[in-house]
Design brief:
70 residues; alpha+beta; globular; disordered N terminus
Length: 70
């Protein structure tokens, strides 16, 4: 079965597991490159990742949704 782009997959979630990957996730959010998408919404210009949850420590769980073109 092919993956549908709008349907979440669990195997492509970026889960920060150390200080460096947590800092990376927080930096994506700070720069506006990772955002929460409201139901029925779309990824805004400039965003490359969707925030799909967070760890118990509050670190964002991310899914790449668009390749940066810059």
């Amino acid at each position: 079965m092919a993956h549908e782009p709008d349907k979440p997959r669990h195997d492509d979630v970026i889960v920060p597991t150390d200080a460096a990957s947590a800092a990376y996730a927080h930096d994506l959010v700070r720069r506006g490159e990772a955002v929460r998408i409201p139901p029925g919404g779309t990824l805004p210009p400039g965003a490359t990742h969707e925030i799909v949850g967070e760890t118990p420590e509050g670190v964002p769980l991310l899914r790449r949704r668009r390749v940066a073109l810059f």
